[in-house]
Each structure stands twice: as C-alpha cells, then as structure tokens.
C-alpha cells in the first residue's frame, strides 16, 4: 500500500470506528470478554502505544484499553478555517483544571488542559514535537543514585534514545522547502517506521527570520539537529503532522486506527476506571481487579485481569486512581477514609510543569513582509488560497505550520553571569538540615523518603545547571508580528506541587496545588531569564525596527523588587506539560515505581505515562510520552516472553 493511501485509510478508519459493526471498540460491559491478559487504563499517548505493541507481540493474549473519552476527529492546532492561533471549531473534548491559588505567585492559579479523547493529549496539543537534551534523561538516572545505577534497565539518554527513534517516522522536507527556510536536520536521530509522523512545515511567516537573526546577535548558535541529544542554541523543531496530508498525527491514528482489525485488541470507551482492587492483598496476589464505572448509567463492574494492569491515565488521573485504590500517602488516605493498601507518599506528589513570564514589545518603524498572520483575517483571497493549498496533495501553505517550528534553548551559564551563585544556593538548600523539607508541601515535609528524594533532585539539578550544554530556558516563536513577545519557559522548576483526590467528590477532578514559586530559587532563575530575554531589544536588528518595550519595561527591570513582582504576577503557571506525580525513583527516595515501572508493593501493576518522569524534561512532553510507552511495552514484552 502506498504512503498516501495508508494515510487516507487511517483517517477513514478512525472516523468510522464508532459505527463499524465489527469494530473492536466497546461501549458496555456485555461486549467484553470474561477476562483479559493485559488491561491498559487510559487511551492516551503512552497507553495506546503500550496497547499496540503488546497486542502485536502476543497475538494469543488479549488486551483491553479503558478510556473515559470517546473517538473524535482531531484537527491540527491551526487547521482551516481558523485564523492564526484562533480556537479550532468543535475541538475534541478536553479536561480543564484550575489549581488552587499560588500564594508565592500573587495567588494566581494554573490553568491546565488535557485531552479527554482517544489519543489523549496527542490529539489536542500544540504539535510541537521536540525531545529533551541528553542531559535531561541522564538526570533521570542520576536521581536514582547507586540503586538505579546498578539496574540493568536504564532510563538515561542511551537507554531511551532507541525508543525515541522507534516511536516516530520523520520525513525530510523537500530540497526546495529546505533551501527556502534553511531547515537543517540529521536523519540519524530518527529511523522509525511507526505510523506516528513528524515533519517540517512547508511554510513560515514572512517575519519568522527576525528573531532568528536576533538570537544570533545575542550569541546563540544554530544546532543542525536538536533531537539527537545536543540542544543548546537555536533549534528547528518538527511538528507531529503527516507530511503529505498536513493533518495532525496522533496516537489514536498511529496506535489504534492503523492497526485495526486486530482480534485480541479491545477498546472500551466512555468508562471511568475507579480503582484497582486487591481482594486478597497486593504483595503476593496480583494482578488486581479493575473497577470500572459506566458514564452512561453509573453501573460499576470489575474487569478480571490474568496478566498485568498498566495505568496510563496521565499526570493528574494516574495518581487519582492510585489514591482511590488505597495506594498513596498513608496520612492522606486516612483523612479520606480509604483503607491503606500500600503506603507510597510519592503518589500525587512531586508535581512539576513549565511556566514563566513574557517579555513584550512593539515596533516603531514600519516593516512589510509577505505573508503575515493578519492576512488570513483580512484578506479573503489569501485565506481561500491557503485553504486550497492545505487541501492539496501534498499539503502546503500557511496551514501546515501548526504552532511553529522554531525555538531557542539556553543554559544557565550562557544566560546569566550569576549562574554560580544560583547553583550554590540550590546546593545550600539541599545540604542545610531541614531547609529543603521546608519547601515541600506540608503533608510530606516529615516523610524521610520524600525529603531524601527532593534533596537528590536538587543536587542533580545543581550539577546539571552548571553544564553550559544543559538548557534551562526555552523560548519558542513563529512570528514577530506586533505586539511581539518572547516567553520564558522555566524548563526545570525546583518547586513541587501535589495532586490529591477531591474528598468532597472522589470521582470528580482532583485538587491541584501547583505551589509555583515555593522554592525561591525558581524566582532567581526567572529573573535571570527575563533579563536575558530583554536583551533582544538591544540587538542591531531590533533597533533597526525601532523595538519599543511594553513589559516589563526599563523602569521595572532596573528595580529588583519591581521585576520580582512582575515575575510573580505575570507568569503563566502552566504551559500544559504536567508530570512526575508517580515518579520513577527508589522507594527510599519517595519513588512510586522502579525502573521496570512496577508500582512498589503492588503485584501486577505498572504505570506508563509522563507521571513516571522523576524530573521535568526540557522540552514539550509529547515525544517523551511516546518513548515512555515504547520502552514500557518492551519491558513488559521481555518480562512475559
């Protein structure tokens, strides 16, 4: 079958799956088998990856995926008929979360979204498909200490790179497009044949190059390829989209529709997993039963599992399910009236996300470029031509750009001359008795394992922050249209939040306490980031366009107290990359799962999603979620082979 034919068929398969009589999708308990070898909780990015690989590796074993949402068409973040960065009409459903007020950030709340749909957040995200640097994943091994260093399974860069490669099929741009936009890449960073696609846009806005020139004037160097482990500098980043159709590429296509029919692979939609149940105790009597609630009629039933349960419900719902199961912090479960099954204080702790404030400006000198975003809103002819180009084969034009393909990644030593002071302050916090614990959430400050794990994280990050090749700032961009902005992503926050079951309504959304800024060094780093990004205004390119700062402004930037107030009041608290709430660390360091992703003390139960990340990676999280799914599947396949 040809490449284009396969792409068209996969879209059609997903669109019609709900209505095909022999579809493997289920909607009620009467359609299920009496038992399953593997049950995956959550049809998201990692979960569908695991389900695809297990059902292919073991044709005689049955796999069930249970998903709260349903199947929906998942348009790209910038598909017709939208104008630049407008909301997509009739998007797939998403979970929406609002955190508790953050007292250290002027009582702001974090607003977070996650896909409530088959495909999870891969069906709703911004399609920015970058990986972390090699040092991000080496840090995962470092926080595990000697215990993890002695394990045969490694989650460092060398241990996860093969799964990054396996997880995606990268398509090189045409020679004409590459020359037009100066795209660079290295195919050795890729090599997969999975129907999860990444590619470069066939279009850039006419003024995209302005910031590209500015970053060079600020001393940043272009990287030829940023997916190969070395990322500090200026990066081209592919989008998660099909190279011919220009459509979003996501897990519901590549790991469900594209593998149908597969007789041992069932998907149950519009059902909520309430908890896992160990009738005879967890340690020697796994795997657990899976208790499920029908969203149609609230009917509760159990699914019998003969092999393993893999929870892949995301950074917010994975810990919620574990807590309802009696797996989590003993003191919290006691307050919730839930019988303790396994005391793991790390469940729902260690919450991390990217956030940060913008630097904004206007231009006082007029400039004219072909093809700026406002043309879609103001020029009906241009918009009509753009839609026709998107519908062409291969797709081309403005609607192939998604959220953009450009970003800078800057290390602390390259960002501020005070980097040594910042690193020393992190180490001081880690090594001063009681100080690190005082920055943790109150309900885990007295937990020896959680304090030990946090100290290990601080020391690991201090070591990596000293590395000039370890990015601690990201700023993506696609256009410089006024008012322009450079947003600072705090790639490795030191503050830690929590996800806790809502005691008033345990089946509803959990309570999120982001606690952004609770570790004061985060503010030190964000001040350095803002000062660095304000440097764009002093470059020859920006001065040539008469760039005039809007915020924070020279007067604010000159006063440390005012600039700190700006950071605390104007930061975005979430860039939609939550993680780390069922961390892969030693149990003695507050870990929830080991390197094999097995939940400590709970037989037949694993976790595979971004919640297992012990430290937030310096990238958007979609590609890492796919790689976690691929490596998790390989670990399980080897265990059962």
Structure description:
It holds the Pfam family GMC_oxred_C. FAD binds at residues 45-46, 117, 273. It is a single chain. By secondary structure, the protein is α/β, with parallel strands linked by helices. Helix content is 31%, strand content 16%. The protein has a six-stranded parallel sheet with strand order 1-9-3-2-13-24. A four-stranded antiparallel sheet has the order 8-17-18-20. Helix 2 (45-57) packs parallel to helix 21 and helix 14 (419-431) runs antiparallel to helix 16. The two termini are 31 Å apart. Mean pLDDT is 94; it is low at 1-13 and 15-22.
Layout of SSEs?
Elements: H1 3-16, E1 25-26, E2 36-41, H2 45-57, E3 63-66, E4 94-98, E5 111-115, H3 134-142, H4 145-149, H5 157-167, E6 169-171, H6 175-181, E7 197-199, H7 209-217, E8 233-236, H8 251-254, E9 265-268, E10 271-277, E11 289-294, E12 300-303, E13 305-311, H9 314-324, E14 327-328, H10 330-336, E15 342-343, E16 358-363, H11 374-378, H12 380-391, E17 406-411, H13 412-415, H14 419-431, H15 435-438, H16 448-465, E18 471-477, E19 484-487, E20 489-490, E21 498-500, E22 511-513, H17 520-533, H18 540-544, E23 547-551, H19 554-557, H20 560-570, E24 605-607, H21 622-640
Parallel strand pairs: 1-9, 2-3, 2-13, 3-9, 6-7, 13-24, 14-15
Antiparallel strand pairs: 4-5, 8-17, 10-11, 11-12, 16-19, 16-23, 17-18, 18-20, 21-22
Helix pairs in contact: 2-21, 5-21, 14-16, 17-20
